[in-house]
């Protein structure tokens, strides 16, 4: 029986899965979504995790054909795009996790291309930069957990811990990137370089992914688990509820649910449920989730577009539910 305080994960997730199934059937080619790449490249993973294996294999094949450059990267990756620049392989990560689960040969290519960006200080944020970013390091570590390359994942977790402990005044600014010498880059020029309370466009999910990597990679290592909890304390106490009730809160809910699974501490469960409730409230009646994003096609003025996030939010709700209840949503 579902705990009375727990949101109805299964109802929300099933509605999202059904919408995605119809989307995949009606529009099996990514060209039908000229401005909605998110809807397609996460489909293989969501179908893999919800036991829709035939659809997962079909969608992975389509994604490989349309997106990948043959070297494990999306052809549309551009080092000039901010969301790619600070984690060049963010898209590759999502597709690569599906390839790992499906034992697809693409997994090797993606893992190899991401491994090229790993350094002693974490993962370089792009092939043209010597600097590393907290986002890229967290994503890289999680990718290698998915690929069962635990030594690489542990090195990434160590680098994430280092960034946490290097912060001079985290209550004022949390610096996210390091130079080739391993020093924090103390620029506050954008949310990609530093998080500051009250920031207009904070990237909260960096903290969620960092905490999730540390918790997942800990394997009984108390220091990593303590640091995962420290990230949780930071975004809960310093940033407040705005961090949790936010369109990007799903990854914070994911990290919190893993911490609850590992420790049984109810504060982690409360955070995970708060994040999940927020996501579920944003779901449309047809089962879909969207977020407003801004793009600059061909260097013109930014356009507001409705980006589909249904696959991502189903994945996150499924994982949060599994960590809280030890049951997956099929």
Give a short overview:
The chain is mainly α and 330 residues long.
Under the CATH scheme, which architecture would be assigned?
Alpha/alpha barrel
Radius of gyration: 19 Å
Uncertain spans, ≥5 residues at pLDDT below 50?
A: none
Please tell me the overall pLDDT.
85
Major β-sheet annotation: 2 strands, antiparallel
Can you tag this structure with a few keywords?
330 residues, mainly alpha, Glycosyltransferase, two-stranded antiparallel sheet, 6-hairpin_glycosidase_sf
Describe this structure in words.
Helix 6 (90-101) packs parallel to helix 8 (134-146) and helix 9 packs across helix 11. The strands form 4 sheets. The protein has a two-stranded antiparallel sheet with strand order 1-2. The protein has a single domain (9-325), classed as Glycosyltransferase (Alpha/alpha barrel). Helices cover 55% and strands 7% of the residues. The protein has 330 residues and is mostly helical. It contains 15 helices and 8 strands. It is globular, with a radius of gyration of 19 Å. A hairpin with a 7-residue loop joins strand 7 and strand 8 (303-308). The protein has helices at 9-26, 37-41, 43-49, 53-67, 82-85, 90-101, 106-115, 134-146, 150-166, 205-218, 222-238, 241-244, 250-263, 266-281, 310-325, and strands at 118-119, 122-123, 132-133, 174-175, 177-178, 194-195, 290-295, 303-308.
How do the helices and strands line up, and which of them pair or pack?
Elements: H1 9-26, H2 37-41, H3 43-49, H4 53-67, H5 82-85, H6 90-101, H7 106-115, E1 118-119, E2 122-123, E3 132-133, H8 134-146, H9 150-166, E4 174-175, E5 177-178, E6 194-195, H10 205-218, H11 222-238, H12 241-244, H13 250-263, H14 266-281, E7 290-295, E8 303-308, H15 310-325
Antiparallel strand pairs: 1-2, 3-5, 4-6, 7-8
Helix pairs in contact: 1-15, 3-4, 3-6, 3-15, 6-7, 6-8, 8-9, 8-10, 9-10, 9-11, 10-11, 10-13, 11-13, 13-14, 13-15, 14-15
GO biological process, one term: carbohydrate metabolic process
